[in-house]
């Protein structure tokens, strides 16, 4: 604290004792005095007046003289009331009133301001709001405080709407105070050089504040440099303000400087803009108007080691008094302060610290150009042409954001044709239409919709026409004809009844600004147009350029690219990982847990741990076991080996980097239920202290499991040698492993309509997204509600088939509703995602089509909430929700419903009944089982395994091999069941069974499956010599078997085939490859008695079998079998994934395979299943000696739940090697120990 206080004290000592402000020095703290009431009548003017007693001089607030207020001659949107304050004042508030005792009042209006009564600027209340609310009667006063205030001499009130049963009527007042202004003017060839006091103590903070008004779009505002090329420069480039900071790597500023900060747009509008630059050590704060950019410079603060002089307006060339190295600034600077010193005041007093170069003056000239704004595509400006001349000649300047639109249209006299000048794809095109000839076209310029001013010159005469856009000239030769200029030229759109060729185009009229219009050799004065003395117009704003940059600030999030037109903006989200109108919503799930419950298998996935938050998505491996594990690999070495050295050897530090950033990893760790990272250690020491090199080392090993979240992930490991030369150590750091997702199953049950959970107010001013799951049996209820003074946001189940998202940000209530063809109150989980942003609102429920509602143009955009957030109810405790809400997130931040529910009456933490929604994920006969947080799939009676019972269990059968499954337990049939419920015994009769298997082979004949009975009954599934599928049922030993051939195709073609057999008494349905089906009827019987065993592969004894079955049984099966199931018996699973007493006997070579579809049927298996002797001694028997297979797969598991190391942190290798693990937030000072358990897979 002492050092901080000293630093602050040093700053205070360096600043002068006077109080100063970035925008205006010396302004009094109370700035709300009435400014208009004391002005003479001559200070008020207007567009027109109804009578002399309705003139603008009677428009003072609360005055009753005259007719009691100002009323124009005609009530339309082109009227205005103007005040001249006499000098520039700071304006902080305005007030309005209707005409006294009348029905005349204004309900909404625009406010504009100007320094010199020309080039007006609209005041913007919010990012997109220009209109002010007016009055509802004639006498009440409506005040509006301006945030922020502005400085101006002239103000204009422009009525937008008024009492429909009356006229426009206004009385007004303006509040504020005097404004101190010190101004210096630069003509583009001048500069000020300020020499600082060469004190030994340099400031630790530099603060520069100023306001500027630019006459041109480019120029240097300030520059300061040092001895070694280091410098700071503030430059206006194409109407944007760029701050260059170079620490010495380059001698002159450029757009590729080491530090370049850009703020602002359209700053060449000849209006005042404020700038504040703060340099504090390596921290840079750069503010233009209301927008601030904070930047942390790399390295030390050497850029502050600058010369003791700073130039304003340009960069002088040393030794040449009027030469400048870069384009100088043309415009005015106001209230220029450097560390609290008024630089302009020093210049006016000709202080020796100031050197003036060129023509520097201390008054700011007012702009003389009069811009015109074309507000809509129907706007037009009709001006008289140079009629009677033999040429067409027009020049003007324009600026716009639109890629297309009509700029100019005119008809030639005597029916000799017409011409149209228009924008298309950002290029300027000219088309000349003449009778009997094809249109002549000329194109010039490109990218003209960039918001910058562009100069256009168009002429057509006799034998040619040409267009010049900025420096680009295009010429088109013409047939020598007389060009007779017409009477009227239309800028922008055309008249509604115009029939010219150019007016039939679908491009629409120009939207943007025009200025400096000349027709022939005559300049056009738009003020005469405004006064009705010249031409005509529609929907124009004269003496103002109303262009705004809708991409500043950019509402496009997560790196989305903003583009705009005159009316709106759009965001390009390509490559960002996000979607939506403002690139707010993530394309990816938040965790592997969420991926798992979409039914996704193990693999590489992108996750976005903070959802729509600022952190981006990153790639992880999701290991889908009973739990979902997130695996994040590091980029460090796989193993690190260190050899002992004499005492005092430097320590060894190894860093471990990850593909994801620190914030992304921290968010993923915090989201998980549990995380861990393993450090495997090996240490070798010589058996005798005096051992020489080459003596074998004695090795010990250990494993540390790091599981405290605040210490993960590991980013650095440091080892210090204890000074024993004949020793060696090695360690391996495993990946970061995180299990589950704490928020995904976080839920609460709402048991009464008056119960709710409350949280702090939701702050989603510009963008608010809400997503959650719900399930219920009731027909309606409010999921969430948050209120402000007038704003609100609410999501509710309005009807059994309707979910509604409603809100108000000041534009009136807005609703978005999703309707479903099926009820939502079905007691299953439904997912809701609602989003509101400056572009509009959207709502999606489950996979139903998303509903959207656009925001009104130039409406309020900020959602302002100040009360508590209610979940499951409302502030009035009415229309509460009954049911469950789960995984609630607001702007990517999860709310802990369970924690709040534990202390809230009527609400319980958790919610049961997940299988009704997620049970479909359990496939192939797997059963969904409820857990406290989620579900699991029970694959006990499935031929598959894995988290969803979808992992194929396959085995390769070599020639002559076989696998026999012995049925030992009773099968019993429930009274109304059509499925088997246990195993078989010889006195149990079966009337139905379901058989499935998949196979791949090229051998014929082949026995796919053989089921025997104690009563010489059997079932065989074989491939005949021609590869056709044959099924034989013998259900009565006294009769011949039923034999059926399914000659679909040659199924011994090396491809994978699936077979499904379903018998119901005498009816057998066979399905092949999930497409071809065939039904047959048995004649040998309907009951399968006393099933004995199921054999895959070669059958040694097939007593009583038919010749074809015996021939196939002798040949056996060579190839791959998978997903074999008979009722609930799964022989391959029993052999390869034993979970109890073995009922399987293997003969020959049978080996597991990953999938039958993965390799050739006759390919070599990856690992062979070796038969084991009964008793489990592990001794292999002969290949033809059949024994039960016990624990066929004895591997030590390398995955989670396998090996958990038994460790106590020991002094490694007697060398006392200390292991310290550096991590992101703190040094690890305690070693964790875990108890190791070995478990067979």
What does this structure look like?
The protein has 1241 residues and is mainly β. Helices cover 5% and strands 40% of the residues. The chain has 9 helices and 87 strands. Strands 1, 2, 3, 4, 5, 6, 7 and 8 form an 8-stranded antiparallel beta sheet that branches. Strands 9, 11, 16, 17, 18, 20, 21 and 23 form an 8-stranded antiparallel beta sheet that branches. Strands 24, 26, 31, 32, 33, 35, 36 and 38 form an 8-stranded antiparallel beta sheet that branches. Strand 56 (781-787) and strand 57 (792-799) form a beta hairpin. The chain is elongated and about 125 Å long. Residues 1-27, 249-257, 970-986 and 1160-1241 have low confidence and may be disordered.
Q: Compute the CA-based radius of gyration.
A: 42 Å
Query: Which structural class is indicated by helix and strand composition?
Result: mainly beta
Which stretches are low in confidence, meaning pLDDT under 50 for 5 or more residues running?
Answer: 1-27, 249-257, 970-986, 1160-1241
Helix content: under 10%
What characterizes the major β-sheet?
8 strands, antiparallel
State the end-to-end distance. Answer: 59 Å
């Amino acid at each position: 604290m002492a050092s901080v206080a000293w630093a602050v004290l040093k700053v205070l000592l360096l600043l002068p004792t006077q109080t100063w402000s970035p925008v205006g020095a010396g302004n009094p703290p109370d700035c709300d005095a009435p400014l208009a009431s004391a002005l003479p009548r001559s200070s008020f003017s207007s567009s027109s007046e109804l009578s002399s007693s309705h003139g603008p001089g009677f428009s003072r607030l609360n005055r009753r003289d005259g007719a009691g207020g100002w009323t124009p001659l005609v009530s339309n949107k082109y009227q205005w009331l103007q005040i001249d304050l006499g000098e520039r004042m700071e304006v902080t508030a305005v007030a309005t009133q209707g005409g006294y005792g009348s029905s005349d009042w204004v309900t909404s209006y625009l406010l504009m301001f100007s320094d010199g009564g020309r080039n007006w600027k609209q005041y913007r209340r919010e990012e997109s709001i220009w209109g002010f609310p007016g009055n509802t009667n004639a006498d009440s006063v409506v005040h509006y405080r301006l945030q922020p205030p502005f400085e101006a001499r002239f103000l204009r009130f422009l009525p937008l709407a008024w009492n429909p049963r009356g006229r426009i009527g206004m009385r007004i007042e303006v509040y504020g105070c005097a404004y101190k202004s010190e101004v210096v003017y630069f003509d583009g060839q001048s500069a000020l050089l300020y020499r600082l006091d060469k004190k030994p103590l340099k400031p630790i903070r530099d603060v520069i504040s100023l306001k500027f008004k630019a006459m041109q779009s480019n120029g240097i505002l300030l520059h300061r440099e040092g001895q070694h090329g280091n410098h700071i420069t503030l430059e206006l480039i194409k109407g944007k303000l760029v701050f260059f900071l170079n620490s010495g790597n380059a001698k002159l500023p450029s757009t590729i400087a080491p530090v370049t900060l850009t703020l602002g747009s359209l700053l060449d509008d000849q209006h005042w803009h404020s700038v504040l630059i703060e340099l504090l050590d390596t921290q840079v704060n750069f503010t233009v108007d209301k927008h601030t950019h904070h930047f942390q410079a790399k390295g030390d603060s050497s850029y502050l080691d600058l010369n003791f002089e700073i130039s304003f307006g340009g960069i002088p060339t040393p030794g040449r008094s009027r030469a400048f190295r870069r384009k100088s600034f043309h415009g005015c600077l106001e209230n220029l302060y450097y560390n609290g010193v008024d630089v302009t005041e020093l210049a006016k007093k000709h202080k020796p610290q100031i050197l003036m170069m060129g023509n520097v003056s201390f008054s700011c000239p007012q702009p003389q150009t009069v811009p015109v704004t074309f507000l809509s595509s129907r706007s037009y400006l009709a001006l008289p042409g140079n009629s009677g001349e033999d040429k067409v000649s027009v020049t003007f300047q324009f600026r716009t954001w639109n890629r297309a639109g009509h700029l100019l249209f005119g008809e030639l006299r005597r029916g000799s044709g017409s011409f149209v000048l228009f924008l298309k794809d950002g290029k300027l095109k000219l088309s000349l239409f003449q009778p009997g000839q094809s249109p002549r076209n000329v194109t010039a310029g490109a990218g003209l919709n960039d918001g910058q001013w562009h100069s256009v010159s168009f002429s057509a005469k006799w034998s040619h026409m040409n267009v010049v856009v900025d420096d680009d000239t295009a010429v088109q030769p013409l047939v020598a004809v007389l060009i007779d200029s017409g009477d009227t030229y239309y800028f922008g759109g055309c008249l509604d009844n115009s029939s010219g060729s150019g007016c039939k185009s679908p491009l629409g009229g120009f939207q943007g600004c025009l200025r400096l219009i000349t027709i022939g050799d005559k300049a056009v004065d738009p003020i005469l147009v405004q006064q009705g003395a010249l031409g005509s117009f529609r929907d124009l704003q004269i003496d103002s350029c109303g262009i705004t940059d809708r991409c500043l600030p950019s509402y496009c999030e997560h790196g989305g690219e903003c583009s705009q037109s005159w009316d709106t903006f759009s965001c390009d989200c390509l490559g960002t990982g996000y979607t939506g109108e403002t690139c707010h919503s993530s394309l990816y799930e938040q965790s592997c847990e969420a991926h798992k419950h979409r039914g996704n298998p193990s693999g590489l996935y992108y996750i976005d741990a903070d959802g729509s938050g600022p952190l981006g998505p990153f790639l992880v491996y999701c290991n889908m076991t009973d739990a979902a594990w997130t695996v994040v690999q590091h980029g460090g070495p796989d193993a690190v080996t260190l050899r002992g050295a004499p005492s005092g050897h430097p320590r060894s530090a190894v860093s471990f980097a990850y593909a994801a950033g620190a914030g992304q990893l921290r968010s993923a760790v915090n989201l998980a239920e549990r995380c861990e990272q393993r450090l495997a250690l090996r240490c070798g020491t010589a058996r005798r202290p005096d051992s020489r090199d080459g003596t074998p080392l004695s090795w010990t090993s250990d494993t540390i499991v790091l599981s405290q979240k605040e210490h993960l992930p590991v980013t650095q490991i440091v080892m210090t040698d204890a000074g024993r030369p004949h020793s060696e150590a090695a360690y391996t750091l495993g990946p970061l492993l995180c299990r589950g997702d704490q928020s995904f199953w976080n839920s609460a049950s709402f048991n009464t309509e008056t119960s709710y959970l409350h949280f702090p107010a939701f702050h989603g001013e510009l963008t608010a997204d809400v997503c959650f799951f719900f399930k219920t049996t009731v027909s309606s209820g409010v999921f969430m509600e948050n209120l402000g003074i007038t704003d609100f946001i609410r999501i509710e189940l309005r009807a059994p088939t309707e979910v509604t998202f409603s809100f108000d940000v000041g534009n009136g209530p807005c609703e978005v509703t999703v309707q479903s063809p099926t009820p939502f109150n079905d007691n299953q989980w439904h997912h809701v995602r609602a989003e509101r942003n400056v572009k509009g609102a959207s709502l999606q429920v489950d996979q139903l089509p998303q509903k959207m509602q656009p925001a009104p143009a130039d409406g309020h955009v900020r959602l302002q909430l100040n009360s508590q957030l209610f979940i499951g109810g409302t502030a009035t405790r009415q229309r509460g929700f009954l049911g469950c809400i789960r995984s609630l997130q607001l702007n990517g931040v999860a709310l802990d419903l369970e924690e709040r529910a534990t202390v809230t009456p009527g609400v319980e933490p958790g919610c049961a009944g997940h299988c009704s929604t997620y049970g479909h994920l359990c496939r192939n006969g797997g059963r969904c089982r409820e857990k406290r947080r989620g579900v699991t799939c029970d694959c006990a009676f499935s031929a598959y395994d894995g988290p969803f019972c979808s992992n194929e269990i396959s085995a390769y059968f070599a020639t002559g091999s076989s696998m026999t499954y012995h049925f030992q337990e009773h099968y019993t049939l429930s009274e109304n069941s059509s499925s088997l419920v246990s195993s078989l015994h010889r006195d149990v009769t079966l009337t139905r069974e379901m058989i499935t298997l998949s196979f791949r082979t090229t051998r014929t004949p082949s026995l796919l499956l053989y089921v025997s009975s104690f009563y010489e009954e059997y079932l065989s599934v074989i491939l005949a010599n021609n590869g056709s599928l044959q099924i034989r049922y013998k259900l009565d030993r006294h009769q011949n078997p039923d034999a059926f051939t399914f000659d679909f195709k040659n199924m011994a073609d090396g491809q994978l085939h699936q077979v499904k057999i379903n018998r119901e008494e005498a009816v057998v349905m066979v399905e092949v490859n999930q497409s071809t089906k065939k039904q047959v009827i048995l004649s040998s019987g309907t009951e399968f008695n006393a099933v004995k065993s199921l054999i895959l592969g070669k059958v040694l004894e097939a007593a009583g079998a038919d010749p074809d079955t015996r021939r196939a049984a002798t040949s056996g099966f060579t190839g791959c079998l998978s997903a074999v199931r008979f009722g609930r018996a799964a022989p391959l699973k029993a052999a390869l994934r034993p979970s109890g007493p073995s009922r399987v006997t293997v003969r020959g070579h049978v080996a597991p395979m990953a999938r039958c579809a993965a390799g050739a049927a006759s390919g070599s298996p990856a690992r062979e299943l070796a038969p084991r002797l009964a008793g489990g001694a592990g001794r292999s028997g002969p290949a033809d000696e059949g024994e039960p297979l016990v624990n066929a797969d004895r591997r030590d598991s390398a995955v989670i739940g396998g090996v958990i190391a038994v460790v106590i942190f020991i002094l490694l290798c007697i060398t006392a090697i200390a292991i310290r693990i550096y991590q992101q937030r703190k040094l690890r000072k305690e070693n964790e120990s875990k108890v190791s358990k070995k478990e067979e897979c």
